[in-house]
Structures are given as structure tokens and as C-alpha cells.
User: What shape does this take?
Amino acid sequence: FLFLVNCSHKLEYIKLKKWLKERGFEDSNLRPAEFWETGRGLMTTKALQAGDLIISLPEKCLLTTGTVLSSCLGGHIAKWKPPVSPLLALCTFLIAEKHAGEKSPWKPYLDVLPKTYTCPACLEPDVINLLPKPLKKKAQEQKMLIQELFTSSKAFFSSLQPLFAESTGSIFNYSALEWAWCTVNTRTIYMKHPHRECFSLEPDVYALAPYLDLLNHSPNVQVKAAFNEQKRSYEIWTNSQCRKHQEVLICYGPHDNHRLLLEYGFVAMDNPHSSVYVSPDTLLKYFSPLDKQRKAKVSILKDHDFLENLTFGWEGPSWRLLTALKVLSLGAEEFACWRRILLGDVISARNEQQALATAAKICQFLIEETQHVLLQISQLKRDKENLKPHLALVEMLHSENLKILQKSAEILCNLNLGTT
Assistant: This one.
């Protein structure tokens, strides 16, 4: 079936549509609906062909740093030293407008924004612990980033006190900033703005796009999206077909599931861009500490950036992973040839074979590790009712990883059979 529930009759969407219309948005063929796989999204009321315009959102509907500066926050931001970042300006505006409630001109948009997010920064420590190692590290960095932003912005938030009856400490609290940061991080479209003196030097490339941000991601569609300078509106054109009453999907970029979870808080099923990362510790476990050249080999890999982004994908081990394994598998008499490996040369049949055999061992280890984590998750889901939605997300990530690793194991098995 195509959609579960058409939501366009819901009051919040009626109000949003009316609000957009007042700002010059012409009703497109898109209707909000609930979908089985993606949750809330937009469906089309007529079939779309490649080359059709999906949506055109006038500049007046977009929330940018320009919006923030022309609000009552503008003067305070302009005066503040050192200058705030464009990101912090948008977060501050979202918190202030949400606090204003009925009085906010942006209320119809704020009412349809998610109340909570599933970005790694918002997950419980118990859930973060279940993420694959490389992603767990990035999730902790994301949490730290928001915490540091919060700490470094306290003085700025206090300076806004004249605008509020309540204390700014209670309005601009940590959870409000986390919510605003996730809103900006997960929902903005890319739109370059000229640098303004009142902002720090970080690039000002954000725009929040009401209604348009209900479009969900699929790795299998192609779209063209850009701001149309003539029409002063942000447009998305499709390069794919879409049947009537089907969900209209756009592509946020060729991201793997780690990146999707980190940046947007979701995982895509059967994502062709997805891969499983091998951490440096896992890689090195398979090489003897007695190898006299081990230290030198690790230095070479580090210097040439071959210790990070080593992956298994739907096509098997990546070229980078195999290259790292070949360097680590060099015999004492072959060690001088390491440069040729980085260029893609074959050094010896033994070296090739050892690299493939080690890749197969690592793959098997990761399969078992993933199965173990999936078991832990299913036990936790029974015990911790409140963590269920978060656990389901992590479970989906590991299930997808398992599929990729099993495919890689099969490919390696055939390659190893071919070489023996």
C-alpha cells in the first residue's frame, strides 16, 4: 500500500498551509501523510515525471540568519563580542520563538517540528554504548559539541535578558539548545549567504524550509535542488518518476547509514552507499606484535591516512581496507616495496593471499560481534520500555551492517577459493 493516513486535514497542517500561502507559497501537489516505512512525509496527488518541479518555496517562507537579524534579537547579536556563529543565531531564534508561543509569527512552523530527535547526541548513554565503535566515538563527539556550545553561549544568552520576563537561564536551558541544534542540523537546506560582520567566520549556509523539510530521504532517487535567484525561491526538481498517491522522496546525498544516523537521526534500509567500518584496533589485532616492522607499518598507514575509513561494503572489502591489510602483511624481505602497494601494485601472491585471508577473519569477527550486539538489544527492548524507539533504531543499523558483512563474507569466500 502507498500511504497509511492522509494527514492534510489535521489542524496543524491546515494552519501551516495557510501561513505559507500568506507568504506567497502556491499550493503544490504535495500532501502530508503517514507512511509505513518512513513515518511522516509528503505524498503526491498526481503522477510525477522526471524533470517535474516537486516544490518551489518562496524566500519569505525560509528561515535564515537574515530572519534572525531582522527580529528583536538582531540588535543584541550585532552588539555581542566575540561574534556568535550563524548556527548559534538560528538556535537562539528557534528557542526564543518557541518560548513566545502564540505570539510567535513562526508558530505554524514550530508546531509541526518534531518535539524530540533521535540524533546520537539525544540518545541515552546505554544506547550510545551499543553503537559500532567508530560511530560511538562520533556520537560522543556530537554530544560534546552541543555541551561546549551550551557552555560557551551562556554569557550571550544572559545578554538577552532585557527581551524576556522570565530568566534566560530557564528559557535557554540545555535541553532547549539540544532541541534547536538538532532542528538546524537535521532539517536545514544548503543555501549560501554572504558573510556578515556580526557573525563569526563559520560558513553561513543554512536555511530552514517549512513544509519542504517534510520530504524524506531515499538513496535511490535523484533530484536537483537549488535557490532560484530569478524567482527568489528554493526549488526541487525530480529526476525520477513517482506514481500518484505515492511518497515523494528526495536524496539528501550519497550518505552511508552511519552518516545518516549521525546527521539526521535515521537509518535507510538496503542503502547502496552503506558500509561497515573497521576500527584500527580491530585491524591490528590480526597482526603479530612480534613483527619487527609492525611499528613502521603502522606509521606508514597513519602518515598516508590508511587507518581510518576502512570498510566492508556490498561489494566486499574496500580498496582502502585491502591496501592497509597488504601493507601489514608485507614480509620482511618485501617491506621496502610498501610504496608500490599504496599505488595499487601486486607485490607477491603470498601477500595478496594473506591480505584476503585476514579480511575474511576480520569480517567473521565483525559478524559475530554484530550478532552479539543484536542479542543484547533484543534483551534490552524487553527490559527497558522507555528506550524502545531508540533501541529499534540502533537495531536497524546493526541489522543492515550484518547484511553487508554477510555479503562481504560470501565475496571473500569466493575470492579465497579462487586464490588457493
Observations:
- The domain at 63-208 is CATH 3.90.1410.10 (set domain protein methyltransferase, domain 1).
